[in-house]
Design goal:
It holds the Pfam family MFS_1. This is MFS transporter. It is a multi-pass membrane protein. Helices cover 77% and strands 0% of the residues. It has 19 helices and no strands.
Length: 494
């Protein structure tokens, strides 16, 4: 056997069919981040949830998801990606059913947290299954373009689904809908690649798990409490400092652990590190946009839930065009940072546009252009980021590398939602402090708060474009003309 044959990975003959089920699972995960957004006003009213607590219906999911992803990725590597995929699907479905039946805020919060727990097992298993199924450059670009479109556009799809279910059935169906989706996706068992487990005995890095989880929870809790307590309160400062210290200790522990939860070589690689960073920073702007526009269209513009969902479709269209159409064609021709920086600048243009939107601005002049810009930007960031998230890792570390990308996305969403919601709420309170709270003034106050949140998101996205332009140094995928083996395939072969 030649050296070339030795490194050429064997393609899964049913890989395109497998993509269908993997994509369906990813859609369910991403959809559930935003499907509840549009149902939130109805759930808030029925369950008597305060304005300060409403964000926890979203954050409970993203926080549990993000803080446990590294553990979920490692479990996927240890027990098998295929097995973790199916366990995650059924666990997620059960938690969704519990949330749909919730009779109070506490039970809904617990169910959302459980959804996050099982999503933390499911998401890295899905991405790593995709990574090992598609190894050739052209096919890989197409497959990750589809996956990136789902990851970027699934949130907007969730708003359409959420609006339809809320208006014509009940907000609880925004959770119940996950049950049939999970059952259908579970049939992927028959076409997914078989698990190949390492013969090396694995030991779970318990200290690393505890430090990572508690550190991430503390940081997001601190950002969330800043809304009611203020950024200078001892509780907020204490939580943020504790989180930073714990995460610093986590990094130190990973450098010394014999079998670390997250080998530092996974994140220190500039291509992979750039992909993780790009996703984390881009979703801060993206999820802030989802939250604010949902309330802008329903509360300020008096759109119904279903009209609000439909109003998000241009954003989905932008993602599909960029991630599913442009990115697969451009990625083999340009270094990934070209696409990512362009995408971040488009995102920043969209959030900047929204800072000028007023209560009486028409949808066509205000929201529509911003959605198109953001959709195009998201697709150009997500598709190459997911392609390069597992760039050059060993097969036995594909799960943890995939989990790191998902961790970046979910923690960015948690911190972004908490931070931007805090900024917006504070700005609205300042605006209303010396004004008579008439209906028109209240709407103007909300829009003022949203504008301040969009301004912060714009600054973050512009800074991200600069950082990614400097950090992301990976070349475009190329094929060795003589050997016939592309560098990503060889890297995945270990």
């Amino acid at each position: 056997m030649s050296a070339t044959e030795a490194v050429r990975p064997e393609a899964n003959p049913r890989r395109w069919f497998a993509l269908l089920f993997i994509g369906l699972a990813q859609l369910m995960i991403v959809l559930d981040i935003t499907v509840v957004n549009i149902a939130l006003p109805s759930a808030q009213k029925e369950l008597n949830i305060s304005d300060g607590d409403r964000q926890w219906v979203i954050t409970a999911y993203t926080l549990a998801f993000g803080s446990l992803l590294l553990l979920g990725g490692r479990i996927s590597d240890y027990t098998g990606r295929k097995r973790a995929f199916v366990i995650g699907l059924f666990g997620f479905a059960a938690a969704s059913a519990l949330g749909g039946a919730a009779g109070n805020f506490g039970l809904l919060l617990a169910a959302r947290g459980l959804q996050g727990v099982f999503a933390a097992m499911l998401a890295p298993a899905a991405l790593s299954l995709l990574s090992v199924s598609f190894t050739q450059p052209a096919e890989r670009a197409k497959a990750f373009g589809v996956f990136g479109a789902i990851a970027g556009g699934g949130g907007a799809v969730g708003l359409v689904v959420g609006g339809t279910l809320t208006e014509y059935l009940d907000w609880r169906w925004c959770l119940y809908v996950n049950v049939p989706i999970a059952v259908i996706a579970a049939f992927g068992w028959y076409v997914l690649p078989a698990d190949t487990l390492s013969t090396k005995r694995a030991r779970l890095d318990v200290p690393g798990v505890l430090l990572a989880v508690t550190g991430l929870v503390a940081v997001v809790f601190g950002c969330s409490e800043a809304e009611s307590e203020g950024w200078g309160s001892p509780l907020v400062i204490g939580a943020l400092v504790l989180g930073v210290v714990l995460l610093a200790l986590f990094v130190l522990s990973q450098a010394r652990a014999p079998q670390p939860l997250l080998p530092l070589s996974v994140v220190m690689h500039r291509a992979r590190g750039g992909a993780y960073l790009a996703v984390a920073l881009s979703v801060i702007g993206m999820f802030g946009l989802f939250l604010f526009l949902t309330y802008y269209m329903q509360v300020v513009k008096d759109f119904s839930p279903v009209v609000t969902g439909v109003a998000f479709l241009p954003l989905t269209g932008g993602v599909l065009v960029s991630a599913g159409g442009l990115a697969p064609r451009l990625l083999p021709k340009f270094p990934p940072r070209v696409l990512m920086v362009t995408g971040l600048l488009l995102l920043a243009s969209g959030t900047s546009w929204l800072t000028q939107v007023k209560a009486d601005t028409s949808y066509a002049a205000g929201v529509l252009p911003a959605e198109i810009l953001v959709g195009l930007g998201v697709g150009l960031v997500m598709a190459p980021a997911m392609n390069y998230a597992t760039y050059g890792v060993k097969p036995e570390e594909a799960g943890i590398a995939s989990a790191t990308l998902n961790t970046s996305q979910q923690i960015g969403a948690s911190i972004g939602t908490a931070l931007l919601n805090t900024v917006a709420t504070s700005a609205t309170a300042d605006y209303l402090a010396d004004r008579e709270p008439t209906p028109a003034v209240l709407k103007d106050g909300l829009v003022e708060g949203f504008a301040k949140g969009y301004a912060v998101a714009t600054v973050v996205l512009l800074a991200a474009a600069v950082v990614i332009g400097l950090v992301m140094n990976a070349p475009r995928p190329r094929r060795d003309a003589e050997a016939g083996v592309d560098e990503l395939s060889a890297a995945h072969a270990g």
